Inverse folding.
């Protein structure tokens, strides 16, 4: 019987051990980290499925745990991503600025994750959230960008503050800090306030519009192996808070008759739609592969918000499955990019080309990840998007529909860019000597690749858990059998689709193999319209891939950055002013300050 | 299950033969329009078999693998396609979204193979193809959203049956604005002028096709014919009420494809950004108007 408390304490202790071991020898510390994470994963997976974890607390004062399928679902996905990523450490350790602390912070943030999903107490939730934020804040600058860490912390702080404010407001009305009790008894305008505050926290963590700015900066500049964790796993914390707000609070607002949704939920769905559209457009524009994937996370965060604001079990199932599918797809894509960046030392798409000839397995991993990310069968992303589409169509949400469809088609565009320009195309001479990633990196890549396919063909295992979550949230379960999933207006058979796809491939392969063998020629031996091209860099179309499309929204794409820049300026000005007032050496200012304090105090006395 | 798969393969083969013949007939029609004799109706078959028998060049494994994946994906999509309300390989599983997204596997394979050739023209062509897709897909899907919302089914056969019931008009009449949007989107899907931007033979050397020859090009021709079959059949089933027997299907199919082809032949070519702006201006507006009228007000003819 594994106890949650012991798992967390174990992680804290092993983080210290990891620090010492890493100081002694980097590889040993990293391998120790792998085993520590693996132990946690195995214990949670072995006992968590049947709610068999021990929730009693003996040593930690003021902390209490409880189990729910919702928490378990999130926890197991995130721990899994942590486990996969930990395999990358031995090969990346020498790239960090502060090598010794990396493994320690990594394990500490995992402790925070377990605590956050298994606690039943609001203040504990907040505490573990802060643990995650603070540890990741020190992990991100290891990628040599301090600005990234500051931006991440700024937006996370906005989220934390509104979360804390929401918690306190809820406590004021309900008098309890137990999550479920508190949320279910909320009512009136306090309920609405808490709803809004929690959603701000969710948006900040999820990187949804308009609090999305940190995503590309933090994901783009984080250490290569940590980006999969940020995007695939930690962003999902926002989804968790979002579920708390959208599903467990029932603010007494008006109901939109035409779409059958409370106004608050409809607005959230629209904001989710905006996230999808903005994320897609910015991802199409991005030149940095990791930034591109970060914007795609923003767009997928939008899907998750849309799904949870629709208030029916099909949409919930879609949203929950999307969390899994996107975690796997995003982690897979980021890992592939990390493996490439390890040998090329750059993540700029326009500086790479033809990596497929040297790294075919990494290429396949990326291909399968993006097929899932774009929601194309036979991968997991298709099933979740199909379920979300079902719900959107059934509710007749036209404007959300535009965003959802736009994001879905737009994702073909952006995921194809790294594929075409980074992996395919001309082979650059500076990367002639690079080799395929080492075995330790290929193992997790292959596992994630397999899972991306598995989630698309046999979703039953996952729907077993998802159905329990939906029932736990108080909705009717969805209908599914071993191979089929039923929505309101149709049935999907993922296994059949995959089978038919394989049949199609076999037919095409037979046609191909029966015909005459083709002669192999080099990549430079192509049609050049009569020109003599001597340099492969000139013959590689990768910069400004979607230039004609980008030109259409060039001007508008900087609005949000400008807005936050202006906001930052204003905050700075305020800071300068306050500094001038409180830290001044000038006698007159000090006297003015003392006088005003006295006036305030007297004013308080009078009133 | 094996029988169903066999039926599916037959459907895909039927689609190939049908579209290749009708494509040939249309070449003749266009020839007559331009005061030429025009080729024989089976000219397209000859082209394809000639290409398949030729020896070709290959630019590496992804170049070949992409072609196989593309053709495989398209064949798989065609296997789900119902022909009439009775002839369907996998009953109940001919979900609309399968066609949109499984078609995308084929397109992804082709794009991958084209980019794998290392020719920048191919990449430009792929870029334009994807951008065009972004343009036409959204208005089209909004119209389909309206249709699925009204019928309560996303299975093509069910949508077909709904229109064939007495008292229900076919959706081209019931949703006239949406029908027009559907047809414009179909023109975009087929890559007919004025949305021919991504092939543009005189401008970017046939775009994605630039490096192909021999069997790879032959397979891409087969892929093209089958994907045209899928797209035109989608329009027939969604907006023209499908067909209760095969003759009806052939007539409707022929009319739709010929009209699209005739419109194509009297038009020039848009630039790629014009395609995007065009689709996001009128067709999207019309699609949303139609959806609001039909779903929120319930005004369906």
């Amino acid at each position: 019987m594994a106890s949650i408390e012991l798992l967390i304490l174990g992680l804290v202790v092993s983080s210290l051990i990891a620090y010492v071991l890493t100081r002694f020898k980097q590889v040993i510390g990293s391998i120790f980290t792998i085993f520590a994470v693996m132990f946690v994963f195995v214990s949670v997976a072995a006992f968590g499925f049947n709610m068999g974890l021990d929730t009693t607390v003996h040593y930690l004062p003021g902390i209490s745990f409880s189990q729910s399928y919702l928490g378990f679902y999130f926890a197991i996905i995130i721990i899994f991503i942590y486990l996969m990523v930990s395999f990358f450490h031995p090969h990346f350790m020498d790239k960090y600025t502060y090598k010794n602390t990396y493994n320690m912070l990594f394990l500490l943030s995992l402790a925070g994750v377990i605590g956050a999903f298994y606690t039943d107490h609001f203040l504990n939730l907040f505490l573990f959230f802060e643990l995650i934020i603070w540890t990741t804040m020190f992990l991100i600058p290891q990628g040599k960008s301090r600005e990234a860490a500051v931006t991440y912390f700024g937006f996370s702080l906005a989220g934390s503050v509104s979360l804390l404010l929401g918690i306190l407001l809820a406590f004021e009305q309900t008098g309890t800090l137990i999550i479920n009790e508190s949320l279910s008894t909320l009512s009136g305008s306090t309920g609405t306030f808490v709803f809004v505050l929690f959603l701000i926290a969710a948006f900040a963590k999820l990187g949804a519009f308009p609090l999305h700015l940190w995503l590309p900066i933090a994901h783009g500049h984080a250490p290569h192996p940590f980006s999969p964790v940020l995007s695939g796993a930690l962003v999902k914390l926002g989804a968790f808070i979002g579920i708390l707000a959208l599903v467990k609070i029932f603010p007494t607002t008006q109901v939109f008759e035409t779409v059958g949704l409370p106004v608050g939920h409809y607005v959230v769905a629209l904001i989710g739609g905006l996230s999808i559209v903005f994320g897609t457009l910015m991802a199409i524009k991005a030149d940095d592969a990791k930034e591109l994937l970060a914007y795609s996370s923003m767009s997928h965060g939008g899907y998750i918000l849309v799904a949870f604001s629709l208030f029916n079990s099909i949409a919930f199932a879609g949203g929950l499955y999307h969390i899994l599918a996107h975690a796997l797809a995003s982690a897979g894509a980021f890992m592939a990019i990390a493996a490439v960046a390890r040998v090329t030392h750059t993540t700029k798409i326009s500086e790479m080309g033809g990596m497929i000839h040297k790294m075919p397995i990494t290429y396949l991993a990326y291909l399968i990840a993006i097929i899932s990310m774009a929601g194309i069968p036979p991968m997991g992303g298709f099933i979740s998007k199909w379920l979300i589409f079902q719900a959107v169509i059934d509710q007749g949400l036209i404007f959300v529909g535009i965003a959802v469809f736009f994001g879905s088609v737009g994702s073909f565009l952006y995921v194809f860019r790294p594929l075409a320009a980074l992996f395919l195309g001309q082979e650059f001479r500076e990367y002639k000597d690079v080799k395929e990633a080492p075995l330790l990196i290929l193992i997790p890549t292959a596992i994630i690749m397999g899972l991306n396919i598995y989630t698309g063909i046999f979703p039953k295992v996952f729907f077993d858990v998802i159905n329990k979550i939906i029932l736990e949230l108080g909705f009717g379960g969805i209908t599914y059998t071993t191979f089929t999933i039923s929505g309101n207006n149709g049935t999907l058979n993922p296994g059949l689709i995959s089978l038919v796809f394989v049949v199609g491939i076999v037919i095409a392969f037979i046609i191909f193999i029966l015909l005459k063998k083709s002669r192999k020629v080099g990549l430079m031996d192509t049609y050049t319209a009569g020109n003599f091209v001597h340099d492969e860099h000139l013959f590689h179309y990768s910069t400004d891939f979607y230039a004609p499309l980008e030109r259409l929204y060039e001007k508008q794409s900087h609005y949000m950055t400008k807005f936050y820049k202006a906001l930052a300026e204003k905050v700075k000005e305020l800071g300068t002013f306050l500094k001038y007032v409180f830290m001044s050496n000038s006698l007159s200012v000090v006297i003015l300050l003392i006088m005003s304090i006295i006036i305030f105090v007297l004013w308080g006395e009078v009133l | 299950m094996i029988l169903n798969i066999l039926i599916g393969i037959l459907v895909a083969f039927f689609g190939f033969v049908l579209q290749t013949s009708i494509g040939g007939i249309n070449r003749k029609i266009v020839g007559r329009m331009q005061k030429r004799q025009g080729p024989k109706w089976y000219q397209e078959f000859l082209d394809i078999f000639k290409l398949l028998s030729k020896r070709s060049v290959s630019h590496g494994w992804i170049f070949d693998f992409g072609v196989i994946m593309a053709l495989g994906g398209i064949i798989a999509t065609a296997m789900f396609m119902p022909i009439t309300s009775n002839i369907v390989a996998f009953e109940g599983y001919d979900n609309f979204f399968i066609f949109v997204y499984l078609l995308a596997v084929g397109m992804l394979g082709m794009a991958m193979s084209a980019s794998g050739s290392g020719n920048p023209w191919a990449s430009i062509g792929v870029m334009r193809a994807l951008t065009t897709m972004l343009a036409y897909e959204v208005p089209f899907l909004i119209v389909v959203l309206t249709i699925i919302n009204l019928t309560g089914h996303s299975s093509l056969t069910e949508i077909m049956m709904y229109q064939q019931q007495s008292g229900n008009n076919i959706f081209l009449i019931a949703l006239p604005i949406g029908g027009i949007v559907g047809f414009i989107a179909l023109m975009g899907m087929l890559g007919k002028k004025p949305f021919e931007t991504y092939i543009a033979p005189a401008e970017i050397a046939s775009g994605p096709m630039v490096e192909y020859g021999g069997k790879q090009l032959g397979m891409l021709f087969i892929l093209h014919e089958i994907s045209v079959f899928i797209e035109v059949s989608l329009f027939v089933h969604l907006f023209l009420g499908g067909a209760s027997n095969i003759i009806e299907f052939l007539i409707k199919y022929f009319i739709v494809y010929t009209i699209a082809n005739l419109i194509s032949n009297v038009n020039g070519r848009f630039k790629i950004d014009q395609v995007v702006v065009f689709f996001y201006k009128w067709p999207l507006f019309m699609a949303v108007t139609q959806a609001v009228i039909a779903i929120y007000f319930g005004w369906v003819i």
